[in-house]
Design goal:
A hairpin with a 2-residue loop joins β2 and β3. Helix content is about 60%, strand content about 10%. The chain has a 3-stranded antiparallel β-sheet with strand order 1-3-2. It is elongated. It has a single domain, classed as Arc Repressor Mutant, subunit A, CATH 1.10.10. It has 5 helices and 3 strands. α2 packs across α4. It starts with 17 loop residues before the first helix and ends with a helix. It has about 120 residues and is mainly α.
């Protein structure tokens, strides 16, 4: 397997988005992330109330999301509140837009080549 390409379109900062995409690749984490995407911070208890899993399992999933930079943990008294972090998602979106642009450019070159070859 190859290492991720360096992103020359993004200035001097190279990013490896595999951690972020892996975090969102799990259906349970994606569901937790989706609940937090409304912008309201929630405690582990609140997030595990509707889930069919223990608080410990929810905590493990939240830690993966936190390590990917998708959620932040804030202490409110004795309780941990988790909140949505839009910055990482915006960076991932920009990266995907760049990838899509490169593919679009490659497909347009292929189309031009094929159409010019038919004449």
């Amino acid at each position: 397997m190859q290492k991720p390409e360096k992103n020359t379109d993004n200035g001097d900062q190279d990013r490896d988005f595999s951690v972020l995409f892996a975090a969102l690749g799990d259906p349970t984490r994606l569901a937790i992330f989706d609940r937090l995407a409304d912008g309201r911070p929630r405690s582990i208890s609140a997030l595990s109330d509707d889930a069919d899993m223990t608080r410990q399992a929810v905590t493990k999933h939240l830690r993966v999301l936190e390590a990917a930079g998708l959620v932040q943990n804030h202490r409110v008294g004795r309780e941990s509140q988790y909140a949505f972090c839009p910055d990482q998602l915006a960076e991932a979106r920009a990266y995907l837009d760049q990838v899509a642009g490169r593919w679009e450019s490659a497909l347009m070159r292929l189309k031009t080549f094929v159409e010019d070859g038919e004449a």
